[in-house]
Each structure stands twice: as structure tokens, then as C-alpha cells.
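Researcher: We're teaching a course module on how sequence relates to structure. For the next exercise, students receive a sequence and then see the predicted structure as C-alpha cells, so they can try to spot secondary structure elements on their own. Here is the exercise chain.
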Amino acid sequence: MKIALAGAGAFGEKHLDGLKNIEGVEVVSLVGRTLEATQKVADKHGIGHATTELADSLARDDVDAVILCTPTQIHAEQAIQCLEAGKHVQVEIPLADSLADAEKVVAKQKETGLVAMCGHTRRFNPSHQWVHKKIRAGELAIQQMDVQTYFFRRKNINAKGEPRSWTDHLLWHHAAHTVDLFQYQAGAPIVQANAIEGPHHPELGIAMDMSIQLKAANGAICTLSLSFNNDGPLGTFFRYICDNGTYIARYDDLVTGKEEPIDVSQVDVSMNGIELQDREFIAAIREGREPNASVSQVLPCYQVLGRLEAQLEAQRR
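Model: And here is the predicted structure for the students to work with:
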């Protein structure tokens, strides 16, 4: 399986590290914003082709599939470009920054029949997988999820502290993780969704704080707090309040509500959520099946985000 990866930044390198652990997979082309920086990453990871144009990678006969780690604002456009070129595609979260664009990607996937997946990593983190398996087995039912997504990003920088060429977004990126995970874990669609936001940053033009409430059809609720103003600790922290126990997930770690560690090392073949989602992408292509977190499966998340955006726009008026 020969892969082209677009986006040689912080998250692109996480995928490159994960892909190295998957047997029979080779990254043969790397796309980045500037050639010099992209070539440096390509050399580091032993990738033979570096370019600044996605079209160059898509034109290669030896590329079977593409992983997009590019700016949010071009995810949908590039995903469609990959599918039209006959390449399977995994788009890093979010699928798009509008419902209309997300729907276009889903329509193109159905038209082509190719594998198209979105990087909703929380479905694959061992901590959340452990909870999901308990729910599927009938051992747990969610009463409430309490989620905090906190960063300190008053400047336009990435996870490596380097300047970004695009602006991140609390609703269309970071809320997407939790909105999708809540529906996935509750096993029921979201029937109520409310959002409020704080002031917009004078330069970045985005809300720096946001609060979201969700309710699933089965009665489970979720409270999500997001901030780019939080000066530590940073990251996303999930509290599952269930009918049979409380669990706190911090990325790939899981503890009980009393902070007792839970061993999730045997949940899957790796403890790396990014590697696990890449393994699912590769396996779905090889097996000719729909992957977990396919663009069709995650579309309900973007439908909810679209409703929330409409609410926020009405509040601004």
C-alpha cells in the first residue's frame, strides 16, 4: 500500500510515525507548503518524493491512497480532488468547516465507491475504545459526558509552537471530536444541541471560548467547555458518568472517578490512537469495506455543528 501524505506539519509527522508501524505500507510522496521544509521532513522519514502541489502526488501511478493533514479550510476541496483522481482518502478532522462542504464529500464518496474516512481519533484511542466495548456489551450506559477542551492559543501557532498558515476553530475542529464521540458512545443521535460563545479575538476573528450542551435520543446528555484562553493544563479531558461507574479519559489513559488506573494496553494492537485510525484506513482499503469513521458515519456530527453555527450566528445578530 503506497501512501501520499499532504501536510508536513505537526500532525502530519504524527501520521508518519504511526504509518511506520503498519506492515506493507510505504509513504512515497509528501506534500507541504514550502519545498525546503517539506524536503527536510521527507528526508527525515525516508520519503522519495516531496512537492508543494497535491496534484503532483495524485498524478503518480504508485499512489494508492492519500492522508490529508492540511488546513481545515481546504479539507473538503482536497478530499474531493483525491476521490476524483481515483485515490482512497483519509481526511484529518474536521471533514469540512461547513455542512454543505461535508455533504459534498459524502456525495463524491458514494459516487466513486472509494474508501473515504475522517480522522475522528477519539473513536480509536484505547481509553475510549475500552468504554465503547463495555457499552456494546451492555455493561455500561452513559448518563452524562462532561468534557473540557482547553488550549492556550492567543497566537496563530501549531502544536509544535510554529506559526500557522491558517486559523483553527473551536466549533468546526475541536467540538467535532466530542460531538461525534458522544453520538458514537451513546449509540443514539443528538436531538438537542445548544451553544453560546465568548468574545471573538480581534485579530484571529474566532471565538476564544465556547460552551455546548447536547442531548441524545436515549436521554444521555453532554456538557462541553472549550477555550483557547486556558493557561494549562492543556488538552481534552472526558468524564463518563455512567449507570455503572464513572471514568475519566485523558487521551490514551483511563482512570475511574476515584483516579484508579485502568489498564487499556491490551484493548488494541497499539496505544497510539493516530496509528490505530491509520490501521483502520489501510485495513478498510485492503478488505474493500467501509471503515469506522467513514465520511458517511461522521456526517451527523457535521449536521449538529451546522445547527450550532446557525445558533451562534443568530446570537451575534
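Model: If you want an answer key for the exercise: The longest strand covers residues 142-150. The two ends are 50 Å apart (CA to CA).
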